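Morning!

This is the sequence you dropped in the shared folder:
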Amino acid sequence: MLMDAHYDDPVLVLGRILAITTLVVAPWGIVRARNLLVLRCLWTMWFLGIVFLAALYLGFLTYHYMGPQLGFSTDGNPMNSWMIMLGFFSVMPFLLAARKGSIERPLRFGTAVSLGVLLLVGPPVLNAVALNIYTQGGGAFDLDMDNSVQPGEVITPSDPEAWDFANSIGFVVCSLIPLLLFIATWRLGERSQSSRVEIYEQESKRE
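The structure's back. Tokens below.
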């Protein structure tokens, strides 16, 4: 654990507010910035916000007796839904910019965006999908009440095979999201650039 704090500590609350604001606002600045220094600062802020929220979600900033649980909870992590929604709103400016052809390096741009989304949305999607598939199939979890140090802290799935299958499906889903985003950003950016070049060539021929 990097910090020995609780989820509702003022420092972490302020950090969440700043990170969420950064992830919503910074992308609009990134797609409009023309100054290289400003662009690098905005990218850095965007990734720092993602790293903070990812570390908070995975349990590296809060205290857990058994150590970080990588964001998993048998009742469902309350951060799952709003982190997934935040990831969606954060990438919208990037997709719009790619569609308009205002991205200079679509391949490099798409790689950076998909990496950020993988860090932000990957763990919540993995845990949410795995938990839903496992519980919908009748799976349950057993508490180790014989643990003499901290009874009830150790949680094990009652059906390990079904739990492994649910996790594999969750892993595939959380990997597909950034992959599809990468392909969409890259192809939209290249197609828009190609269209702009064709229009420019046609106008040059007319002149």
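Headline: Helices lie at 10-30, 36-58, 79-100, 106-136, 160-206.

More detail when I'm at my desk.
O.
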